[in-house]
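Task: sequence design from structure.
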């Protein structure tokens, strides 16, 4: 590699690694990611936990449900806070439309949290009406639905001559254990199977890595764009290219910034490996002698598949980073201001966002024709193919074909972008048209 490109790589790498932003990101990003996970879990648990007394009115036209419902609510943890019942139910004898309108007004003015209307024909129709200022609290609504459903179901069975004990016996749920059949031999010589916990561990690791890929490309590709734009607008680039060719400058920037990303991620991986290897001694400090069997399975799955998944991650991260970052560098080269660059880079951002959104739907059917075709679109492959590898490993020939297609696309993008870049960084004034960009590519 020419010494001039190495000099650019060192400059880009050392400038960013020594910055306070890199040090802050190195420590704060994992903390923020863990914090977001814990916060979302905490909010999911605490969304209905409040010390405020919530009053609910119940119109029971059957005359048979309210008392059982109130007893069930008093015992249910969803309606308690620190062991104290915070949801108070009282029965209303309202029947006219005006009286129901008055109840709705009391809900609107926060005098009531909500009111339930249980029609007389609920045992036949199975319909209950719930009125509140907002119906986004699905946990409370689902809990009321289950309580009333149990009461109605018991009443139906009782009228058919079944006791509650018989009803519980007949309605007993079936245990459903799911296993994924994998290629290779199992411990007992049969097919290799993977439990739901092991599958969840791999998916969790895969989602984390996809999010890191998405986040790093968005952040650092934009960083390259702003760097190119700054050098152009301050005319520093005119001095730089007097001693180095434009394509060498571009390549040096890409390799340097990509190395920064890989350095940060490598530090996280090393820290994670050390944490997993020493998890038991660390837990012993807090007086925890043993781990739950589920947690041991998760750690075992990560140990078994971590190396393979990380290998594919680095391959797709590097190719995706070079492909997207090259395009962002071109945007910085052809634009004359930050505002122009943001507008022009919008469609490029969509190329990253679209596969990230599709991933959450396609992972359910990773071997469908649509999933396979979309995963082989080069601009979607870094996310969608990596998702498929985590969910249902494609044949090796398909992965290798996809990698070759990605490599060819990266080379083509860099070739075309390099021609535009070498002209664009020295052009000022009005942003070039598509016809002009076409001419630059043919130089």
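Answer:
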């Amino acid at each position: 590699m020419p010494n001039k490109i190495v000099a650019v790589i060192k400059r880009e790498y050392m400038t960013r690694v020594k910055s306070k932003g890199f040090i802050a990101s190195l420590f704060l990003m994992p903390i923020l990611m863990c914090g977001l996970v814990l916060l979302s879990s905490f909010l999911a648990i605490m969304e209905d936990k409040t010390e405020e007394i919530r009053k609910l009115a119940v119109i029971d036209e059957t005359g048979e449900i309210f008392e059982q419902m109130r007893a069930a609510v008093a015992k249910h943890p969803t309606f308690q806070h620190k062991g104290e019942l915070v949801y108070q139910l009282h029965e209303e004898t309202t029947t006219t439309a005006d009286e129901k309108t008055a109840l709705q007004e009391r809900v609107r003015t926060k005098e009531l949290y909500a009111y339930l209307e249980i029609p007389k024909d609920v045992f036949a129709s199975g319909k209950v009406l719930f009125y509140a200022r907002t119906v986004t609290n699905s946990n409370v609504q689902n809990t009321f639905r289950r309580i009333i459903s149990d009461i109605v179901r018991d009443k139906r069975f009782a009228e058919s001559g079944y006791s509650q004990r018989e009803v519980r016996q007949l309605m007993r749920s079936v245990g459903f254990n799911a296993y994924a059949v994998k290629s290779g031999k199992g411990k007992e010589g049969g097919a290799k199977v993977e439990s739901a916990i092991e599958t969840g561990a791999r998916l969790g690791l895969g989602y984390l890595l996809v999010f890191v890929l998405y986040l790093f490309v968005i952040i650092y590709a934009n960083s390259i764009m702003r760097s190119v734009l700054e050098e152009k607008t301050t005319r520093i680039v005119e001095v730089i290219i007097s001693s180095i060719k434009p394509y060498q400058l571009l390549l040096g920037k890409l390799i340097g910034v990509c190395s920064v990303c890989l350095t940060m991620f490598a530090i996280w991986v090393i820290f994670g490996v050390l944490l997993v290897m020493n998890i038991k001694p660390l837990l012993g400090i807090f007086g925890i002698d043993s781990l739950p069997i589920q947690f041991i399975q998760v750690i075992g799955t990560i140990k078994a598949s971590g190396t393979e998944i990380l290998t594919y991650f680095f391959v797709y991260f590097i190719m995706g980073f070079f492909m997207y970052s090259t395009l962002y560098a071109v945007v910085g080269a052809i634009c004359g201001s930050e505002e122009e660059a943001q507008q022009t880079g919008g469609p490029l951002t969509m190329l990253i966002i679209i596969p990230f959104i599709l991933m959450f739907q396609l992972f359910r059917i990773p071997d469908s024709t649509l999933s396979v075709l979309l995963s082989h679109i080069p601009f979607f492959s870094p996310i969608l193919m990596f998702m498929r590898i985590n969910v249902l490993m494609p044949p090796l020939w398909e992965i290798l074909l996809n990698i070759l297609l990605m490599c060819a696309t990266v080379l083509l993008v860099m070739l075309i972008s390099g021609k535009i870049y070498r002209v664009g960084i020295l052009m000022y004034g009005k942003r070039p048209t598509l016809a002009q960009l076409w001419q630059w590519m043919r130089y």
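Residues 293-334 form the longest helix (42 residues).
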